[in-house]
């Protein structure tokens, strides 16, 4: 690994009267050598081991608000996810008024982290679905038996959904233990696929303990699951991406336990950075996020930025599906298509339970609405 | 596992005009079944699978500010760390104005998660240090060679420090690869201990990838390390606690990448909950946190609450050392002793590098200041 540098733009709103240059230098030191400035060896400055302030731009019309671009040596982040996050936003997470709004990685970092293995094209090919968004749902609620969940899944698959994921609350509880649930659901889906002649993929929630989670990934693969639902902040930012790669599983990421990064517009990371740029770099093929206009707090602009971070051009990286969710309904399908376009994995969860007592009917209504919206749009 | 319930108090400041009862119910549903209220099966209500609002108390003199106590069935959190965090603060992390300020676990949960294995008494006994705070440092900066870090460590150990940890930026970079660093440092510490006739413990930073981290823990144990430095949010909230238990290593937790949970007084968790209550429950013997008056943002009250969460009485749990850090100096030792008392692991990092070019001299000055402060206090 050479001493190439990668670039991070922090939006900084100082909470004291020190000049912005002092705040910028604080970040450079805190995220690397973390010692008083006068104790830093001269060679550390010369070799660029301390972060370097590349530019400071005051935002027009935003007093006390700056975009600070800092570069770090890539070998300090060492092409490992825990290490990289520590450099990007380790101790400064405990300060105030620092928000990551952009990151530019080196080619070598992109190659090392690897990005989506399937991406939009790979998932479309595997499902044999072109020209429309994917129809996706989550099976719930937690507390049903594995048998009941499997029946639900079978219905959704017969109704024509493309991707079914576990609700993120379904982990390994006695109501629906992981292996029993996964094997019953995969059986139900196999039966449905045989009947319909098309394909539905199931992504079980991968959230076991350190000592059980690899066995879960291997089990999901052995049962024929196409992918897994990965909650990076519950199981470790590296864990799910690593296991999916090892067991050749697609990755759908879930944003549970990530929210404190976003909710303050002046501190943390934007949704586009964490759920988009970083999760895509790490290997997300589909990234679930709470859509605007539902139960959550993302704005329309934040959602669009996130979709761009997942699908926009990025040298060396496949693109990933944005999967807007969180209070979506069949009635909103047309509006969501307008907002996000075809390369989207639309996720309607609880509203399908409400639409009809028969999951097959609900699923068919969802897919029909989707096809109608697409054909209306194309006319 | 029985259907016992545990209790979480959320401080809620609604961001819309709906009644507080609606916000409380939102949390109960979002963190469990996550479906529209009218789609929840009657049996789920009867069996208490949905969270239950136990009380809502409006805070005196704080308009639009409520303490909402909610109980959850313990078997929904299933005595696993990723699962528990998902119930405590999963999707609601992406909402606004919800802060965890208190948690009461069941006896069975306490037993299952286990808490500190050594605790304050166990670590004191192993070090043979009684009647004063521990003298602790972090070796840095990142980018020195393993040999230089080992020389630094040897000096600190000869100077009489009790615990030396890696700076959290020292991971597995080519400057100081994990195994080379740990074996050189342990050699230096063994030599120093032989010379002084006392004991210094070294805690290396455990932040490898999923596929390397267990080997790192095993290596640290084989080299004779007493404990490891665990950054739960970088490696997964379960990973380090699990490995330390498996390899019989003490746990010092590090707060890197946790900060977005704290910095908004109206959303997230208090430092006492995450770095205190939860990390202690999961197995922290020492919890490092940024002290007030240094480079970070915690208030004095937050730090004291955190110390109480680590050391206060808790049925079935050993107590853990609070380790205030982040810009501390030898001059502040007396004030820190006054503030935190004897059962504290005082951590002075970069300031030791500045105090003298000879680490042995710096370490001795730290320990001497500590002993003087203690004897002054006892007089």
Q: According to CATH, what is the topology of the largest domain in chain A?
A: TIM Barrel
Average of the residue pLDDT scores of chain A? 96
Major pleated sheet of chain A: 5 strands, mixed
Order of helices and strands of chain A: EHHEEHHEHHEHEHEHEHHEEHEHEHEHH
CATH architecture of the largest domain in chain A: Alpha-Beta Barrel
Helix content of chain A: 40-55%
Strand order, biggest sheet of chain A?
2-3-1-4-10
Q: Largest protein interface?
A: A-B, 85 and 86 residues
Structural class of chain A: alpha/beta
Oligomeric state of shown chains: homodimer
Number of domains of chain A: 2
Calculate Rg of chain A over CA atoms.
22 Å
Can you tell me the CATH superfamily of the largest domain in chain A?
Ribulose bisphosphate carboxylase, large subunit, C-terminal domain
Distance between the termini of chain A: 52 Å
How large is the count of helical segments of chain A? 16
Q: How many strand elements of chain A?
A: 13
Shape of chain A: elongated
Strand fraction band of chain A? 15-25%
């Amino acid at each position: 690994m050479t001493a190439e540098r990668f670039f991070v733009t922090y939006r900084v709103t100082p909470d004291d009267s020190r000049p912005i240059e002092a705040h910028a230098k604080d970040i450079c030191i805190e995220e690397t050598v973390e010692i008083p400035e006068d104790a830093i060896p001269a060679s550390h400055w010369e070799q660029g081991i301390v972060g370097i302030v590349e530019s400071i731009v005051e935002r027009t019309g935003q007093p006390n608000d700056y975009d600070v671009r800092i570069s770090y040596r890539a070998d300090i982040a060492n092409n490992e996810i825990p290490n990289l996050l520590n450099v990007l936003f380790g101790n400064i997470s405990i300060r105030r008024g620092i928000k990551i709004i952009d990151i530019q990685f080196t080619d070598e970092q992109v190659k090392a982290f690897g990005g989506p293995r399937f991406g939009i094209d790979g998932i479309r090919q595997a499902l044999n679905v072109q020209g429309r968004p994917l129809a996706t749902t989550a099976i719930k609620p937690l507390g049903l038996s594995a048998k009941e969940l499997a029946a639900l899944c079978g219905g959704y698959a017969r109704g024509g959904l493309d991707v079914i994921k576990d609700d993120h609350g379904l982990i390994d509880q006695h109501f629906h233990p992981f292996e029993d649930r996964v094997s019953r659901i995969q059986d139900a889906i196999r039966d449905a696929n045989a009947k319909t002649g098309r394909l539905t993929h199931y992504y079980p929630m991968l959230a076991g303990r350190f000592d059980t989670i690899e066995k879960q990934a291997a089990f999901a693969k052995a049962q024929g699951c196409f992918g897994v639902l990965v909650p990076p902040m519950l199981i470790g930012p590296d864990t799910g991406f690593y296991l999916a790669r090892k067991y050749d599983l697609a990755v759908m990421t879930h944003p549970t336990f990530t929210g404190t990064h976003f909710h303050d517009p002046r501190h943390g990371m934007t949704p586009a950075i964490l759920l988009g740029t970083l999760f895509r770099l790490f290997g997300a093929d589909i990234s679930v996020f709470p859509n605007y206009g539902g139960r959550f707090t993302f704005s329309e602009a934040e959602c669009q930025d996130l979709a761009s971070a997942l699908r926009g051009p990025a040298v060396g990286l496949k693109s990933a599906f944005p999967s807007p969710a969180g209070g979506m309904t069949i009635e909103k399908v047309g509006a969501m298509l307008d907002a996000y376009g075809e390369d989207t994995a639309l996720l309607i969860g609880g509203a399908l339970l409400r639409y009809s007592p028969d999951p097959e009917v609900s699923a068919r209504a969802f897919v029909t609405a989707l096809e109608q919206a697409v054909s209306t749009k194309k006319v």
